[in-house]
Amino acid sequence: MNQMTLVPPQPAPPPPLPLAFSGDRSEFRALVTRGAALELVTVGFYRFWLATDIRRHLWSNTVIDGDAAEYTGRARELLIGFLIAMAIIVPVYLAYFIAGLEAERFKAFASIPLLLFFYVFGQFAIYRARRYRLTRTVWRGVRFWMAGSGWAYAGLSLLWGLGVIFTLGLLLPWREAALERYKMRHSYYGDLQGSFEGRGWEFFKRGWWLWLLAPFSFYLFPAAPFVYAAYKAVEWRWWLSGIRFGDVRLESTMAKSALIGLYWKVIGWFVLAWFLFAAYLAGGAALIASMHGIPMAMLFKTPALLHSVPLLVLLGIGYLAVILGLNVVMRVYLLRDLWARVLATTTVHGIEAAANVSARGELANALGEGFADGLDVAGF
Amino acid sequence: MNDGSTDHLQEDAPAQPAPGRSAIFFNGESSRRRTVTVMFAYALELREPLNSTVRWQYDDIRRADSPSGVLRLSCLSAPALARLEIRDPALAAEVIAHCPRLDESRPGRGGVAAIVGWSLGAAASIVAMVWFGVPLAADRLTPLVPQSFERRLGDVADGQVKVIFGSKICNNGAGQAAFTKLVNTLRDAAGLDPSVRSAVLATPVPNAFALPGGRVYLFDGLLAKAQNPDEIAGVLGHEFGHLKHRDNTRNLIRNGGTSFLIGLLFGDVTGSGAMIFASRSLVTASYSREAEQSADDFSIEVMHKLGRPTKPMGELLFRVTGKEGDKNLSFLANHPLTEDRLQHMTDADRPAGGPPLLTADEWQALKTICAPAGSGPGKGGSGNASGNSDGGKISGTSGEKI
């Protein structure tokens, strides 16, 4: 160790650093199980606290160059953002209703294009929600932050979205590249400005065969999850490899098949859950039938049974249990495991550029998250 | 302040006294990773060679989120993002012992009961609003909605009805004259102004609609199932009841308010769509049954005024739907069960005291209102009785059905 001080400081470029996820899976599972139960008990209001706890877990276990990140957002902020967003969305909905009425008077079902407005509003919300999350992301005592205009982003997204529709999805990679460039250009870590170097063409080159398979996979059930998982893997790899903050750059080596197992596990759990649900219902129906003295053979021919109140109550309870379980499954696999897998295949180059970054940037409010919640376009 | 080029060397510098007492410090102003020596004085002292010592009051120190195995601290009186990271368990334990208010501002356990309590309170308030507030608001607001607005709604619904059921209006001469006579008699008895427009639509569905802004459609399918003018008169009286009560506008306000309030619950919980749908259906069905009940009462009142029996309408409905109690759950239906309506109308029935509403010839003409012009009365009658018997189950428009 002493020897090292004698060597003249020769800043040789350090090797690329792998990202690491140090989170404990059973701890996360307990977190989301408890959260899902509380979400049901609180008729959904717990969602702000659960989302915050999930992010706190994922962020603080994401280790970059030996130091873990931190999420400093609080559920109370999300709740207040949601309440304010509601106060704004209600008049907007009313205005939408009146405008729709005028359009319908002109021609039946002519109000459908007004849905475009909600698309634009949703994109605005997505941008602002990202801004909230980014300003709550801290690493080494310095926060990330974001500038730019949510409406400009929404307009950009609308134009590209129309392009994607008219080209039957072919323009999707270029749309993603353009939107990501806008987002990353306006993202900062302290005084380090972000950028996005991914090109639509590279995305398309890696995944062109997926566009060919996509139309067929809609009709062939077992194919769809494969195609979707491969698409997501290609997208993740392309997206991560394009991210820059100053001279810091990310690189992803995610294989195309990396996510297939994950999606199939989720499908397996879904099938199992609905199978158990069906068995439970059949059992409940048989029980009720035996209490009414109806023979098993007549069970499903009796209309009264299908409208019996106890059976409906059993159905309700079973349904709640199923969605509780599936919410846990989806969060464990599609948030936590996906996050861990993405981090495991990602490396950082040039981290020394982030060794002495000055803190800058203001906190953004949670209004965007509130809009995203109210419009049902939430990310995570 | 600091000599950037020797960053990495300082970390490993031999000058560090007790290695067990070292920790990593980020001062919240730069991302520079500093190795400091932690000293316990009257405050927690973070010493760094070549830099001034940072002091954190024990009372101001709070725990921040960290991966397991790391104690991460912040300080209320330091920059908000300044962090001290301690990886040595012994040192961490010592720091924890020194800081009495470490976990005070952490979001966590104690708050859950409060969250549940407030959520249940909010849910109870939403349910109360849906149950009492929304109907009350709808009753108060409906008279304030101008007729011109309602007519616009009617124009919209009219366009949609015609897209769904076809736009062929039946008006062959004698039939139209009989229909006009029947409608005018009932309209006057109902106390509605002459702006009310009615027509027979050529569709085999056995139903009738009242649209906002004073428009009533009778479907030929219902005419085909009717056996006397009193049956149709009762139905028209029912639809006029909807117009008189402005049920379309009231329902618009009620359903809009209910959907919004129920939509506040659950948010993005996967699978909550079915729960929201179920609870909304229950509530709107209950509103709807109430409106149908009072439209029936209105029809009975009109028929009494005209001295005509009320039971025939009930019989017509029963002919269309059959007994419903076996097939449906009463609390899910958006109309009262047909047998209950028949019972209600039978109870209110009085022997005919007034003159018949239509002559036999006029009735025959009305029955064939949809027959091609020229074909005389008596020829049609059952011509359109292709009657699919799922009356009262069409949906998709904002009209009030029987």
Structure annotation, total helices of chain A:
13
Strands of chain A, count = 11
Question: Which strand-content bin applies to the residues of chain B?
Answer: 5-15%
- Number of H/I helices of chain B: 12
* Spatial arrangement of strands, main beta sheet of chain A: 1-11-10-9-8-7-6-5-4-3-2
Walk across the major sheet of chain B and give the strand order.
4-3-2-1-7-6-5
Largest sheet of chain B: 7 strands, antiparallel
Low-confidence stretches of chain B: 1-17, 375-398
Mean pLDDT of chain A comes to 85
Indicate the low-confidence ranges of chain A by residue numbers. Answer: 1-5
**For the CA atoms, what is the radius of gyration of chain B?**
38 Å
Structural class label of chain A: alpha+beta
Oligomeric state, counting identical vs distinct chains: heterodimer
Largest sheet of chain A: 11 strands, antiparallel
| Silhouette of chain A | globular
Total separate domains of chain B: 2
Most residues in contact: chain pair: A-B, 74 and 67 residues
The H-and-E topology of chain B, N to C, reads as HEEEEEEEHHHEHEEEHHHHHHHE
The end-to-end span of chain B amounts to: 85 Å
Give the overall silhouette of chain B.
rod-shaped
Give a written overview of the molecule.
The complex is a heterodimer of chains A (380) and B (402). The longest helix of chain A has 36 residues. Chain A is globular and about 85 Å long. An 11-stranded antiparallel beta sheet of chain A has the order 1-11-10-9-8-7-6-5-4-3-2. Chain A starts with a helix and ends in a 6-residue tail after the last helix. Chain A has 380 residues and is an alpha+beta fold. Chain A is built from 13 helices and 11 strands. In chain A, helix 2 runs antiparallel to helix 12. Chain B is of the alpha+beta class. Chain B has 2 domains: 95 residues, PH-domain like (Roll), CATH 2.30.29; 275 residues, no CATH class. In chain B, a hairpin with a 6-residue loop joins strand 5 and strand 6. In chain B, helix 10 runs antiparallel to helix 11. The longest helix of chain B has 35 residues. Chain B starts with 6 loop residues before the first helix and ends with a strand. The N terminus of chain B is likely disordered. Chains A and B meet through helix 1, helix 2, helix 3, strand 4 and helix 4 of A and helix 1, helix 3, helix 4 and helix 9 of B.
